[in-house]
Specification:
Elements (H helix, E strand, L loop, with lengths): L1 H12 L2 H4 L6 E2 L7 E2 L16 E5 L5 E4 L3 E4 L4 E5 L9 E6 L5 E5 L4 E5 L5 E8 L8 E4 L5 E8 L4 E8 L7 E4 L9 E7 L5 E9 L5 E10 L14 E5 L8 H4 L6 E6 L4 E6 L4 E6 L2 E9 L3 E10 L5 E8 L8 H4 L3 E7 L5 H8 L7 E3 L4 E3 L1
Parallel strand pairs: 1-22
Antiparallel strand pairs: 2-25, 3-4, 4-5, 5-6, 7-8, 8-9, 9-10, 11-12, 12-13, 13-14, 15-16, 16-17, 17-18, 19-20, 20-21, 21-22, 23-24, 24-25, 26-27
Bound molecules: 2-acetamido-2-deoxy-beta-D-glucopyranose (NAG).
Keywords: Hydrolase, Signal
GO molecular function, one term: hydrolase activity
Protein name: SMP-30/Gluconolactonase/LRE-like region domain-containing protein
Length: 375
């Protein structure tokens, strides 16, 4: 512990960590276009409300989302699981669909993950739980479905956490905290593996005393390929400092709730991050930070989460509160509805690919003109 905090102190003060991100520049031309998700495609969006988040995808490309009390298949409009009325602590915040069609459902309020069967029965409650977790708020799963990574936060304390859960033997899950305190990380939120599962990415937002968001960053940590956990002494590296990206409006980034929320990666290393109060999604290439694009949204305001869905996994589905489409409507009304946008993208998402192929893309994927080609 002492060693790792000393090491992170050195990292924090090393000019190298900021120099890496200096040349990031966001392309603000409308290279990607967001469309309103139609209520025919997503009948389940209608009543989800302001707490919508935790998007996941199934192997057929159907998209699921959660709100505080419901797990919903957005494409069918079926609520698969509902928290019991007496469970006042329930706060669903994340979901991941397995190859079997079962769904891992993250309950931040009860600090546990449940397993829900295809037809909505609770098959494990808890599936995995840990009283030391701050939440979990979001989670990501390895392609072999044996390793789960979870993030949580405590807003008031300006704190976050990251955890590993080994779930190859569901009867005996193993737990390991990946320390974020003393490593320059504050409120962690979005969490994702890179396409080849060499690294774990996590977002960090820092509050000022006056509750503005004074730092919005993404960090990564290398995983030991044998254990799929960070090796002893491994520390977080700064990947992208959004305040240092040219082309993003600096003043706006300093507003309250300017958090990176959900983030998901495609099989070629394009990470799509939701910037909550900026009302935008940012695509950044994890292999080349100069390759960054800002994407405006169509109907979603305050995007919380996103995932690649659709038949070939190339429709990025973004959820959040609705934009005020009627300027006369009271803010209150519009801000309690959930909306969904679709952004057509070039390459399928990592999670979709893993569900389809049961494997990581590895070097087998070559960038084609518009689609990845598997060799
Ligand atoms: C959550 O979603 C369900 C199903 O759509 C809905 O009935 C419920 O009102 C929503 N909760 C909130 C707080 O919006």
């Amino acid at each position: 512990m002492y060693f790792s905090s000393l090491l992170s102190l050195v990292l924090l003060t090393a000019p190298l960590t900021t120099a890496r991100t200096l040349h990031a520049r966001a392309d603000t031309r409308d290279l990607y276009k967001a469309y309103a998700g139609s209520s025919k495609t997503y009948p389940g969006i209608t009543h989800m409300g302001a707490s919508i988040e935790g998007v996941s995808v199934s192997s057929s490309g159907e998209v699921y989302a959660v709100n505080q009390t419901h797990l919903m298949n957005l494409n069918t409009g079926t609520a698969l699981h509902t928290a019991s009325k007496s469970d006042t602590k329930a706060y669903f915040a994340s979901s991941r669909v397995l190859r079997s069609g079962e769904i891992l459902l993250g309950d931040a309020g009860n600090k546990k993950v449940l397993k829900i069967s295809k037809d909505g029965k609770v098959s494990a409650d808890p599936f995995v739980a840990n009283g030391k977790w701050l939440q979990p708020n979001d989670m990501t799963l390895s392609a072999d479905e044996k390793h789960l990574y979870l993030s949580g936060m405590n807003w008031g304390e300006n704190l976050g956490d990251a955890w590993y859960a080994g779930i190859s033997d569901p009867k005996k899950p193993s737990h390991q905290q990946i320390p974020t305190k003393n490593a320059g990380l504050y409120r962690t939120n979005g969490i994702e593996l890179d396409a080849n599962e060499w690294k774990l990415y996590i977002t960090s937002a820092q509050n000022s005393e006056s509750k503005n968001t004074i730092a919005t960053k993404v960090y990564s940590i290398f995983l030991n390929p044998e254990t799929m956990k960070p090796a002893d002494g491994e520390t977080w590296n700064l990947e992208l400092d959004f305040h240092a990206v040219d082309g993003l409006e600096k003043q706006k980034l300093l507003a309250a709730d300017m958090d990176l929320d959900g983030m998901r990666i495609d099989i070629m290393g394009n990470m799509f991050s939701t910037l909550n109060a900026y009302n935008r999604v940012v695509r950044w290439n994890v292999n080349d930070k100069t390759d960054t694009t800002v994407i405006k949204l169509a109907t979603v305001e305050r995007p919380t989460n996103l995932e690649f869905g659709g038949k070939d996994g190339t429709t990025l589905v973004v959820v959040g509160k609705c934009k005020k489409n009627n300027p006369d409507a009271s803010e209150e009304v519009e801000k309690t509805r959930a909306c969904v946008d679709e952004i057509p993208v070039e390459f399928p998402g990592r999670a979709f690919y893993a569900l389809k192929h049961g494997a990581k893309p590895n070097e087998k994927c070559k960038a084609g003109k518009r689609r990845a080609r598997m060799v």
